[in-house]
Amino acid sequence: MRNVILYTALFLLIAVTSWRCSDEQLVNGSSAPDHALDISSARHGSVSNLLVPAITMNAYIDFPIPAFVFSINGPSGAITVDWGDGTTDVWTLNNNIIVYHYYTAEGNYPVTVTGDLETVTAFQATSSSIAAMDQLDISALPALQYFELTVARGPAVVDLSHNTALNSITLRGSPQTTTLLLPPNHVINYVDISATTLSNNTSLPVATINALIDNIHTSVVNNPRSGEFKLADQSGTGWVGPPSPGAVTQLEDLGDNYSWTVLP
After folding, report:
1. Given a cut of 60, is residue 12 above it in pLDDT?
2. What is the average per-residue pLDDT within 22-38?
3. Residue 39: pLDDT above 60?
4. Are strands 55-61 and 133-137 parallel, antiparallel or unpaired?
């Protein structure tokens, strides 16, 4: 009986010692299993990426002009642009700067912009075929006031719902764009969705145009202000869409009662 007790005590001592050594090795990282390190690294990396604010775009490059261009306005600081082809550039913010890159092959490239984005007040991509993109995310621009996208090829969704400081929106051309999202509360006083020679008269679906008009009208009724709304079709005499009768009534109300200029 005494031997059984001694053997049992010895077994427990060995087990506890082994567990403590194993635990110390895992804490120090010297003997942790490879998969544990991989999981830890992957988890840490993904959290870090999520915490870094960024503008993201999926640039579409098509010869004979293999370039991608956009402009950004910020009073100070710097941005880092990863062009998605192994090239990274640093640009100093000094009010309005034109950011550009030349590619060596056609295709889609994920473009990521990081840095002092909290000071950026304007974003523009207006170079037709050399600002073509299939995706755009500018939710990381809390101070954005001016947005302009006039391109021959644009993203299906333009989501501005996080840019609550916006006061000016221009979205022209881009026949691929079907959805435009605005923040529920904003101070927008300029909207231009007029047609261009780059697109047909219905680059935005009627339902999207109606929703845009309703959003602007509701915002102005709740927070009265003057402004301008441009909806000219390619002829310059009609409206893009055209909007539904209810939306037209809202446009007329903006003009008659809130000092908005509605064109045409």
Report:
1. no
2. 34
3. no
4. antiparallel
